[in-house]
Amino acid sequence: MDIAIILPYKENFSREYAGAVSLFVNDMCNNSLYKKNIKILGSTNYKKILSKSYINIKFKKNFFKSTNLEYVKSIVKNYEIKKYDLIELHNRPLYVTYLRNLNFTKNIIFYFHNDPLSMNGSKTLDSRKYLVKNCNFILFNSNWSKKRFLDNLNLSSSEIKKLKVVYQSSEKPKNIDFTKKRKIITFVGKLNKAKGYDLFGKATIKILNKHKDWKANIVGDEPREKINFSHNRFIKHGFLEYKKTQNILKKTSISVICSRWNEPLGRSSLESSANGCAVIISNRGGLRETITNGVILKNLSINELYEKINYLIINNKIRKKFQKLSYKNFYLTNLYVSNLLDNIRKEILFKSNIFNINKNKLRILNIYNIGQKANHRIYNISIGKKFTNGFIRNNHDVIEISDRDFVRQNRKFGISNTAKFDEYLLETFKNYNPDLVFFGHSENIHRKTLQNLKEINKKILISQWNEDPMMQGLEDSKDNIKKLKKFEDLVDMSFITTSPDVIKKKHNIKNLSFFFIPVDRNIECFNVYNMKPKNDLFYAMSHGVNRGTLKRGKFDNRIKFLNKLTTYLEGIDYDFYGYENVEPVWADKFYKALIECKMGLNLSRGEPTKYYTSNRIASLIGNGLLTFIDRKTEIDRIFNKNEVIFYNSIPDLADKIRFYKTNEKSRINIAKKGQKKYFKLFNEKNTSEYLVKKILGKNISLFY
Q1: Residue 16 has what pLDDT?
Q2: Distance from the CA of 97 to the CA of which of 35, 479, 598, 622 falls in 20 to 30 A?
Q3: Strand arrangement, sheet containing 597-602
């Protein structure tokens, strides 16, 4: 999707004097999936531009004509604006009218940064109705602004859906050292009465006279209104570049935003929260929506502001509590809000541009290892196969491509020929013209090939998945994360079986979503709890599904775990594969061994990590075995103790195995409930529907 963002005339998209709109647009572009396809158009005399994507508009002004109209005319005439799929306009409602009057028919998103009822082009009911009719979406930086727009305006339900709140955002530091917070009170903003600077100054001077070890930092200016305060610890920095302001806020203990006017949002309070300040705000406009934890002034006066600042100073514990909660609960990060905006863009893409979609039925190209080389012995653990089954049962059309089998079958002199696979994929794409390219664990697709697909069809959706572990401390995880990042900027969504929270702590991968290993009644087809197994405990592992056999000398955490566990299993009939020189079992042999066991151990490689499990969990719970899972995986957030047995240690696990060996009624009841829950939440149809909706940018939860 090619996107043109048109800034208000004279908006300073510059590091020298950037306003809230410029900072917001720049942050959103830097974090967007579409950042390589975005151009920002504006007009400024400043030189230090924020982004290389910016184009400065030069045009001749006419004393007798509107400068804003001439600005828009120049953009349409001289900058090939019609080649873009989407135009995003900021904070000048009249620009919508200008564009439509110039016979501009492309998609438009309009973003309000101010009170709609105070702006030319949205003051009247008719003008607001015009905006709703002529925009795909209208975005507001707060619910307060949205309510103002809706004042006395009657809209249909479909029109209401066009109105969305997309808050402004702030960069959240990865870590805040609260011990480095200084005894500083900070004010950031215009130094005028509308911002309450006069109240702040008078209250703060009193504070500084009382608390000799505190000082005040003031960031901002106001050439049109002179309000002067003098104190040796009342420090005026003037206007500062964004990064310098952030550095001050990181050290600030108390941040004050005491506006008199109804601020639609308030970027200063957002940034203060993100940097772990104890925030004091006035109860005006959308300011309340910028903080999760803070002090709200009921009566905007010098005395009340003084009392609130003084309260936070003398109550050290309460001040620090507010600081930590502000930081902990801050969620309006640049990445989070950028994803919201990208999802709205995708919705336009979905509704307007994908011409193959017929009543939500997609054409899907599903690329994964089908396993022909292995004579289909991995069919029962193939996630790609379950995805295909789910897609088809949800009325989508699917073509499957087995990249590894194709490359193997087209080797030349024993050398892999991935170039031939790229050619095959490209030609198949042209013939089938899919809506979605979905691939997993493919090392045979090149970035250039995906770029070519996007050139052929700019509306194509592309997503990847990876079922392998991604926890810290496991060597393979580094490679798995590297594979994800390879296509990060080319895919609409990446799906993994480890909780994204774990990855985001160290790796900033965009549009990352979790999926749980699916089950399929055609594959997980047994109810072991209704059978009479001869063995107690089942466990099967391998050294790679493609290898199939044990690799001599290979040793990992699972072997160490089993070595210790077996010392506790006297009297337990266990059947382990891939352990103590017993070769792994596959396909039908796997099932014949599995259904002869009452219980199964869900043990994966690496340290137990939030939500991660290999695909063995589907085989165990899905086929009705009572299943044991390490509590540290936090899967007890999904299944409860009446559906799965969670253990805390190896001795605890052994005790529970012995207990359920002799308590058959409880074992059967729990196994049955676990299987029922699994198929209810994570069957192949539910999982594939979740994947598609996530890729399309729709708001959907997997299990919460």
Answers
A1: 85
A2: 35
A3: 574-577, 535-540, 597-602, 626-630, 645-647
Give me the residue label for tokens 């009624």.
Answer: 665
Task: Give pLDDT tens digits for 535-556.
Answer: 999 999 998 887 889 888 888 8
β-sheet bridge partners, residue 495? 465, 513
The single-letter DSSP state of residue 591 is H
Is domain 178-332 annotated with CATH 3.40.50.2000? Answer: yes
Instruction: Give the pair of three-digit tokens for residue 373.
Output: 């080389």
Q: Which amino acid is at 325?
A: L
Q: What is the DSSP letter of 582?
A: P
Name the CATH topology of 528-682: Rossmann fold (3.40.50)
Per the CB < 8 A criterion, the answer to whether 530 and 402 are in contact is no
Nearest residue to 531 (alpha-carbon basis) of 601, 595, 623, 620 = 595
Q: How far apart are CA 14 and CA 17, in angstroms?
A: 6
Distance, in Å, from the CA atom of 509 to the CA atom of 93, rounded to the nearest integer, reads 35
Give the number of C-alpha atoms closer than 13 A to the C-alpha of residue 331, restricted to the C-beta side: 7
Distances (CA, A) of 78 to 37, 62, 75, 634: 19, 17, 6, 57
What is the tens place of the pLDDT at every residue in 131-172?
Answer: 999 999 999 999 999 999 999 999 999 899 999 999 999 999
* Among the four given CATH numbers 3.30.1360, 3.40.50, 2.40.128, 1.20.120, the one describing domain 354-514: 3.40.50
Q: With helix as H, strand as E and coil as C, how does 244-294 read? A: HHHHHHHHCCEEEECCCCCCCCCHHHHHHHHCCCEEEEECCCCHHHHCCCC
Residue with token string 């022909």: 372
Based on DSSP, count helices (H) and strands (E) in the chain, helices before strands.
Answer: 24, 24
Which pTM was predicted?
0.56
